[in-house]
Automatic annotation (TrEMBL), chain A:
Key words of the record: Cytoplasm, Metal-binding, tRNA processing, Zinc
GO biological process, one term: tRNA modification
Cofactor note text: Binds 1 zinc ion per subunit.
Originating organism: Oleoguttula mirabilis
Keyword Zinc listed: yes
Record-linked PANTHER family: QUEUINE TRNA-RIBOSYLTRANSFERASE ACCESSORY SUBUNIT 2 (PTHR46064)
Region (Disordered): 452-477
Cofactor: Zn(2+)
Family affiliation: Belongs to the queuine tRNA-ribosyltransferase family. QTRT2 subfamily.
Cellular component, GO annotation: cytoplasm
Protein name (record): Queuine tRNA-ribosyltransferase accessory subunit 2
HAMAP family the UniProt entry points to: QTRT2 (MF_03043)
Subunit structure: Heterodimer of a catalytic subunit and an accessory subunit.
Residue span(s) of domain tRNA-guanine(15) transglycosylase-like: 29-408
Automatic annotation (TrEMBL), chain B:
Tagged with keyword Lyase: no
Cofactor(s) required, per the database record: Zn(2+)
Taxonomic lineage from the root: Eukaryota, Fungi, Dikarya, Ascomycota, Pezizomycotina
Subunit structure of this chain's protein: Heterodimer of a catalytic subunit and an accessory subunit.
GO cellular component: cytosol
Active site: 112 (proton acceptor), 287 (nucleophile)
Name the record gives this protein: Queuine tRNA-ribosyltransferase catalytic subunit 1
Pfam family, one: TGT
Compartment(s) of residence: Cytoplasm
């Protein structure tokens, strides 16, 4: 369908993404500003908070607004469509009285926070079968298991939800490599889906409230998806406001003509070292699943960029890299009346202390994860601020090198139990399978329900330990 | 009352009042019912009575930050001594400087003695004159919790109100001799608790009236305990499955014997109707885990009843959890709230912890606000009409559905719900 009002349609606001500083060859870290109407401008490089069913795990919306500085979030449509088909998902029927974004209002996201919508949550669960996508559909994972999402349907519904940014649908086989033949197929499909989506958008007369469309890049080099890249630089160029990268490979030979677009990374860094590397490859806004995993593991992130000054001539410093995080389960924190990390100014660290965190984790109280999530995201905020400063000052490369020397290469191993496994970690694949959450204790009597309120102490604590804690005395009659 | 114990201590004979860390100011007495409005000055600030106290078992309230709990208007919450005694334990509590510091809660805390939890949670607990014997939940080693231990632990916790260790017997127990023994033992244990209490100037020890459903035993216990002049008085052993009519008789009998100038706390109560009726019977303080526990299962407590938002019918219900509710969850964004819909609670219930947190915020706020409204009506001498309006709304005007026990109990204090 050839749109009739073409000239008006091509007035894409050029000011959405401004590159402040970038290497002349197009590859490398860069500084920018992402500004969308009504939202607080985001200085890049930055990150997006990841949501599950519309919420950053554990963080109720009032805490989000008050106790975090998360400037943008990513939402996966698959979290909202378990009723379809045959029913219309509730979200599509929600019409806020003031005509504002149904998605934003449904999840109670603050007005100033950037809202990015895509098909799959991050990190996505890999589909059970190897060829889960078809010419018309992709496999998505809803609360009731894997379903197919039609590309046409996706393009239709995401436009109605009024997010700020929509990531177009790509034929990305999560969890699997793209073989040569499969790349050809994926390229064709993604071209088709994106063209259909853009055509649909161009047919809309009132475009002021339209979300910006980001084009997904297949997780291979641009050369390997050349037809699609050609389409992006030609017929789709005027309709695309940004790129979504699923692998650093697609940034290596990105043509100059796409260089002005902001790059959203779904590149799954697993450490801060990875984040720095991805930034060095030119990712502007990145999603960081390991933050949420760290929180659930009871781990408080503890790294800064640039890294603290250490004595390069001091062999002790060089031989003893700093840990990237602190395991809050450790009993050594039990009486620590000081912040999770020194000098941290987050809500958690200014209102609470390590001892409380340790207690909450040991007692399996949900608040522990709330407080950790707040601290961990604050740590990221500071980390990215430091990254931007160093890029501005031209010291990024050196600081990355120092960072690599100063810190351990991996996050500490998880020692404690996480919260109850929730939807985003595990999806039911059918009836009759074993429970994933073992009851934290078993009681033989009717105290079960009362005790369900709170777990008993570790099963390996013995009576003399209890006595030492002062709970009661051993009965020595 | 004569002949019950031979002990009778008129108020004017209490020459040396025991040290107390509270000040009770009676504001209004309802001219119809036995309800009272009062202000209670506690070490961590004043609270208004009647009052509902949410239960933060292990030093946190179901995922809510102390800041969020404060926003529900809560100024006194419960911690459980049994749980804090196990985790983080007394040594750690001493090192940290008590439970207020542990959880950064600037307001008041009340702790139970730990005995009830022990008896109700550990089937093999056994009560002797020394204390509560039980097998360690970890390795089965025999342990003993004494009145002295309980007070020492609560001294370490530093709660503003601490409870005596009492001998708790289910009111439904058929063993009358045992119930009588438990009542007398509770009095003896109160003496041991008073003697063991090291911080009477900063922590208020409440006695606990026992005696099962036997009103004579309850009377005798009231007399004995009132004579011991603790800063506050609790009515214990209830909410254990007894008939509501029996419960009301016990509460009313006790409040009639208790001095006007002390707070009265009915332990483990309860549901909104129970609280409002108990207020009419002269009780001031209530605690219950129900609003938060039930939130975890997706239950919303509202003035028109309890609704399970996990039910499919709420998936498309875009109204707030309760229309007109002023909690952070329900208030629209235009009033600084979140404007959370029932559909969103449905969307997250049992799937994301935040869904339960939001509902806990609403439920706790609902209970606190209900009791606040009750107090307002007492101050304005319109508690009877408040009660009639409450039951009318809850049962959508269908008086046939009113619970008989509530009709009878309120009738006994001059409020005819059926009028
Ligand atoms: Zn912090
Ligand atoms: Zn509410």
């Amino acid at each position: 369908m050839e749109p009739t009002n073409q000239p008006k349609l091509e007035q894409l606001p050029a000011e959405m993404f401004t590159i402040i500083k970038a290497a002349s060859n197009g590859i490398g870290p860069r500084l920018g500003t992402l500004a969308l109407p009504g939202r607080k401008a985001i200085q890049t490089p930055h990150y997006l908070g990841l949501t599950s069913r519309g919420v950053v795990p554990h963080i109720t919306q009032d805490n989000f607004a008050r106790a975090t500085s998360i400037s943008g979030v990513y939402v996966g449509l698959e979290d909202f469509i378990e009723k379809a088909p045959p029913h219309t998902p509730p979200l599509y029927q929600f019409k806020p009285p003031d005509g504002s974004s149904p998605l934003r209002r449904f999840i109670a996201l603050p007005e100033q926070t950037l809202l990015v919508l895509g098909a799959r949550r991050t990190p996505p669960l890999a589909a059970p079968s190897a060829n889960s996508n078809t010419h018309e559909t992709v496999a998505v994972c809803t609360a009731v298991g894997f379903r197919t999402l039609r590309a046409e349907y996706y393009a239709e519904v995401v436009e109605g939800l009024k997010a700020d940014i929509v990531v177009g649908l790509g034929d990305i086989p999560f969890g699997r490599a793209l073989g040569h033949k499969r790349v050809v197929k994926a390229t064709d499909r993604t071209i088709q889906w994106m063209q259909d989506h853009v055509t649909r958008r161009r047919a809309v007369v009132e475009r002021t409230a339209q979300a910006r469309l980001f084009a997904p890049l297949l997780p291979v080099s641009c050369a390997k998806q050349q037809h699609y890249i050609d389409s992006l630089t030609q017929d789709l160029a005027s309709a695309i406001s940004g790129l979504a990268a699923y692998d650093l490979a697609s940034l290596g030979d990105l043509p100059d003509s796409l260089g002005h677009l902001p790059r959203l990374g779904f590149t799954a860094p697993s450490t801060p070292h990875d984040i720095l590397q991805h930034i060095a490859h030119g990712i502007d806004i990145i999603t960081i699943p390991f933050v949420i995993a760290a929180t659930d593991a009871g781990i408080a992130l503890d790294f800064a960029f640039p890294p603290p000054a250490r004595n390069a001539t001091n062999e002790r410093d060089l031989d003893n890299p700093l840990p990237l995080a602190i395991d809050m389960w450790a009993a050594t924190h039990a009486t620590g009346i000081y912040p999770l990390t020194t000098g941290c100014e987050c809500y958690t660290c200014t209102s609470h202390h390590r001892a409380y965190l340790q207690h909450l984790l040991a007692a399996k109280e949900l608040l522990g994860w709330v407080l950790l999530q707040i601290h961990n995201h604050h740590t990221l905020d500071l980390f990215f601020a430091g990254v931007r400063l160093s890029i501005a000052g031209g010291t990024f490369e050196q600081e990355v090198e120092r960072f690599a020397q100063a810190y351990e290469s991996r996050l500490p191993e998880k020692t404690g139990q996480g919260p109850r496994i929730r939807g985003y970690q595990y999806k039911s694949e059918g009836r009759g399978e074993a429970k994933k959450n073992k009851a934290p204790f078993t009681m033989l009597d009717d105290g079960r329900e009362k005790l369900a309120e709170s777990a008993l102490p570790a099963a390996n604590a013995d009576a003399s330990e209890l006595e030492e804690q002062g709970f009661a005395e051993k009965d020595v009659q | 009352m004569s002949g019950l114990s031979g002990l009778s201590v008129p108020e004017d004979m209490v020459l040396r009042p025991r040290p107390s860390a509270l000040k009770f100011d009676l504001v209004t007495k309802c001219s119809t019912t036995k309800a009272r409005a009062a202000t209670l000055q506690l070490p961590h600030g004043p609270v208004s009575l009647p009052m509902f106290m949410p239960v933060a078992t292990q030093g946190s309230l179901k995922g809510l930050t102390p800041k969020q709990l404060e926003e529900t208007s809560c100024r006194l919450c419960l911690n459980n001594t049994y749980h804090l005694g196990l985790k983080p334990g007394q040594k750690t509590l001493d090192a940290i400087g008590g439970a207020h510091k542990l959880q950064s809660w600037p307001h008041n805390i009340l702790t139970d003695s730990g005995g009830f939890q022990m008896v109700s949670l550990l089937k093999l607990a056994q009560v002797t004159e020394d204390g509560v014997r039980f097998l360690s939940p970890h390795d089965g080693t025999p342990m003993l919790l004494t009145p002295e231990h309980s007070i020492s632990l609560q001294n370490s916790i530093g709660s503003d109100i601490i409870m005596q260790l009492d001998d708790v017997i289910a009111t439904t127990s058929p063993d009358h001799a045992r119930i009588e023994e438990a009542m007398h033992r509770s009095v003896r244990w109160l003496d041991r608790c008073i003697a063991a209490h090291e911080k009477p100037h900063s922590q208020n020890l409440f006695c606990i009236i026992q005696g099962g459903l036997d009103l004579d035993l309850r009377r005798e216990c009231c007399e004995e305990m009132v004579a011991r002049d603790t800063p506050g008085i609790a009515i214990g052993g209830l909410s254990g499955g007894e008939a509501k009519a029996e419960y009301c008789k016990v509460v009313s009998t006790c409040t009639s014997l208790l001095p006007d100038n002390k707070p009265r706390y009915v332990m483990g109560v309860g549901y909104p109707e129970d609280i409002l009726v108990s207020i009419a019977l002269g009780a001031d303080m209530f605690d219950c885990v129900w609003p938060t526990r039930t939130a975890r299962f997706g239950n919303a407590v509202t003035s028109t009843g309890v609704f399970n938002l996990r039910h499919a019918s709420y998936a498309y219900d875009f109204r707030p959890v309760e229309d007109g509710c002023k909690c952070t969850c329900c208030r629209p964004p235009s009033e600084g709230g979140l404007g959370i819909t029932r559909a969103y609670i449905h969307h997250t219930a049992a799937k994301e912890t935040a869904g339960a947190h939001l509902l806990s915020m609403h439920n706790v706020h609902h209970l606190l606000d209900l009791v606040r409204q009750a107090r307002e009506s007492i101050v304005e001498q319109r508690y009877p009409s408040f009660l009639r309006a409450y039951f009318g709304k809850l049962y959508a005007g269908d008086k046939n559905k009113y619970p008989q026990w509530a009709v009878d109990a309120l009738g006994g204090v001059g409020v005819d719900l059926m009028a």
